[in-house]
Amino acid sequence: MKTPILTAATLGLLLSAAGASDLDKKIPDPAADPANAAASETVVLAGGCFWGQQGVFEHVKGVTHVTAGYSGGAKETAFYPMVGTETTGHAESVQITFDPKVVSFGRLLQIYFSVAHDPTELNFQGPDQGTSYRSEIFFTSPDQEKTARAYVAQLDGAHIFAKPIVTKIEPLKGFYQAEGYHQDYLIHNPTQPYIVYNDLPKIAALKSVWPQYYRPDPVAFAQSRSPSLHAPG
Question: 39-223: what CATH class?
């Protein structure tokens, strides 16, 4: 995720080249998406660098908090330099807290599979290689598991993507908040070349493909206090 700073001219070329049309198109609604009357629901999703994932979901209506972090490994190895060795089992992830009466879990998956990342890429996203950049849904309830598995089967059965979906679906065992400098990295560094080329187009795609779910003002991490989930002990 480290890239050199580019000139203003090159930056302009990147902005014009990485448009929303390069990303995706609408995909079908989930056939099964149970209603949830709770005031709040949480899920952890992994789909490449957490800078972009956090940036996208902070722009989704009904989302109240998004935290960048690590999931899939132990607490003792949940820090950036260690996760980057690709030996910890962790994936760069985002913990998403949302109001299910405004945006359902199935709707979040629709965004996740269509514009937030490519679910057919195994253990990489764009320029980022390794299992820490894998596609994975860490569900927090039986309903979430059923909805996720049914939606993957639905999309694969309809051949929505050119290749099979490789997204893993596993129960959440622990989520560990990433270092402070990773939180809202996209908001704080909108002209950083990696962000410009890899992540801003995802937000543009959300606005273009799913305007009914898009909110122009993101729910910034520092403005929405929400406790993170952690493994017991």
Answer: alpha beta
